[in-house]
Amino acid sequence: MPLADFHAQQDVVTLLQRSLERGRLGHAYLFTGQDLAELEAVGLTLAQTLNCAQPPQTAPDGTPMDSCGICVSCQKIMSGSHPDVMVVKPESKLRQIKIGQIVRRPNSPPRVLHDLVNNKPVEGGYKVALLVAADRLNEDAANSLLKTLEEPPARTVFVLLSTEPGRLLDTIRSRCLRLNFAGDGQRTFCEGELTWLSEFAAMAAKGDKDLFGRYRSLDTLMVRLKALEAKIDEEVEAASPLSQHEEIPPELREQWEEESKAAVMAEYRHRRAGFLTALQGWLRDVWLHARGLGGERARFPDLTDSAATVGGRITAREAEANLRLVEQTQRTLHTNVGELLVLEMGLLKLKL
Predict the structure, then answer these.
(1) Contact 112/119 with Cβ under 8 angstroms?
(2) How many CB atoms lie within 10 A of CB 126?
(3) Domain tally for the chain?
(4) Which of 123, 39, 23, 132 is nearest to 81 (CA)?
(5) 167 and 203 housed in the same domain
(6) Distance CA 137, CA 90 (A)
(7) Range of the domain at 112
(8) What are 97's strand-pairing partners?
(9) Of 180, 203, 232, which marks where a domain is finished?
């Protein structure tokens, strides 16, 4: 599928083709949107374009501006067999991109990202690395990728794909050219997140003075988070090589234990953020009502009554401050400040 066929993403396609035409292709892109499959499709088409042997459209200097989709190179890329194109995706039950997928480790797959990065193009075109759901990079993998982005090799393009770019390291985002794909912007929330949000919204609708209600919501959230962490710990233990091998050298055992701990923390932070993201969505509905723009735009239609009640008694400025407060709470949770204290301060300061 050539770039020209992505009609719903013409702004993105035009920008990419203009960069190709002017010889100003970036070394790293961050594709963001709600349809990960579409992000990957455009990323693969860009890889095809950069390596196409029979491009239907070229720049004045001969640089391909689109792909034919039928030449040997294009076919190899679509089949996953092109030596200069690599797609990295989350693996295991936790859906994480691990350090072993970036650099060589004892339990690494046959091919890792550094194999592509550290070698010259095999077929003479561009090396292209697609990281699908890049927000699922664990801490070690993210730091390793960051080092590569800081000193990008020649004729190498990194394309990071994410539906939740806010969970990427700021330093990674700052080294990528961000392209936002058109879409409805809707995120799907899990049952636990929605249940807690419904309870919180009902409490909020009772009035700002219901301090006991806020502490009850906080207690419910902490119970859910504790159970969530225990579940993640079980999942990581089951997926760890430690549970699959009996005789493990001490150094390797220590490494795997550290990786397991890091995996638990990374996944826990990822899922914990979902509760606050849901809260942000509802507070956005409150903000819309405070501005007199509620109704069909609601992110949570089932909670419209509570959003309208709260939005009817606070100002638009206060509603906007609530959104900033939750965003700040998300950031603070990634520091060494105690989780309970951060969540307590965040919930108590909300204007409801």
Answers:
(1) no
(2) 19
(3) 2
(4) 123
(5) no
(6) 8
(7) 3-180
(8) 137
(9) 180
The Cα angle at residue 229 between residues 348 and 344, in degrees rounded to 5: 10
Between CA 50 and CA 47 the distance in angstroms is 5
Cα separation, 212 vs 225, in Å, equals 20
Instruction: Work out the angle at residue 268's Cα, subtended by the Cα atoms of residues 266 and 273, and round it to the nearest 5 degrees.
Output: 100
Whether residue 179 contacts residue 12, with contact meaning beta carbons closer than 8 Å, is answered with yes
> Are 236 and 115 part of one and the same domain?
no
**Residue 36 neighbours by CB under 8 Å, 6+ apart:** 132, 133, 161, 163
Question: Would you give per-residue pLDDT tens digits along the chain (352 residues)?
Answer: 788 888 778 888 888 999 998 888 899 999 998 888 899 999 999 999 999 999 998 888 888 999 999 999 999 999 999 999 999 998 766 678 988 899 988 777 888 999 998 888 998 789 999 999 999 998 889 999 999 999 888 899 999 999 888 888 889 999 999 998 876 555 678 888 999 999 999 989 987 566 788 888 889 999 999 998 898 888 777 766 566 666 666 776 676 677 777 778 877 887 888 899 899 999 999 999 999 887 667 889 899 999 999 999 999 999 999 999 998 898 888 777 899 999 999 988 999 8
Of residues 244, 171, 200, 291, the one with CA closest to residue 252 = 244
Claim to verify: residue 165 and residue 206 sit in the same structural domain: no
